[in-house]
Amino acid sequence: MPLGSEIPDPGTLQAGRVGIRVVRRGDADIMRTLLVANRRWLEHWEATHPSGRGVVPGSVSMRPTIRVMRKQLAAGTGIPYVVLYDDVVVGQLSVSEISGGALQDAQIGYWVSEEVAGRGIVPLAVALAIDHLFFTLGLHRVEICIRPENGPSLRVVEKLGLRYEGRRDAYIHIDGAWRDHDCFAITREEIPGGLVHRLNSPASSA
């Protein structure tokens, strides 16, 4: 079950040069431009429909998609962020499957432009999102599921210190086939000082 009420827009969550904020209708053109420019970079990791139907990301206007994404806030089921670097949109971070009740859980997925990959943007963006989910919305657990072939994403969860919880066989239809995913998770009790703080601590960067 969702949280049961509308999720307030938190505004921009910022740590140094990296930020995240809820996607806006005005982001449609830049999002489409990024998706087109990064087609080869992203296509191997994008969800596809088993029937073969579906729209290639960036091939049509993003405005209807953004309207649907923003409805998740009102429904209490998700938070659609854009990722910012020096206040410029460089990617997307999606919090989905938000559950209240006895579960208090959510899932996170993300991508950034190839042009800015490797600068530590994604770990910090994910840390910002998780801290908000834990310490503002009061969730208990967050998980990230990654294809075992996706080395850059595996390095993100390694930097963040998420626990490996096992492999889900044929979990999501991606790039034309059912793909295995490795599941990583973290709970609020594991990071009492917050994940951004832990990520930026000397022990983490050593």
UniProtKB/TrEMBL annotation:
Keyword annotations: Acyltransferase, Transferase
Signal peptide: none
InterPro entries linked to this entry: Acyl_CoA_acyltransferase (IPR016181), GNAT_dom (IPR000182), N-acetyltransferase (IPR051531)
Pfam family, one: Acetyltransf_3
Superkingdom assignment: Bacteria
All residue ranges annotated as the N-acetyltransferase domain in the record: 18-189
GO MF term list: protein-N-terminal-alanine acetyltransferase activity
GO CC term (a single one): cytoplasm
KW Transferase (keyword) present: yes
Family statement drawn from the similarity comment of this UniProt entry: Belongs to the acetyltransferase family. RimJ subfamily.
Name recorded for this polypeptide: GNAT family N-acetyltransferase
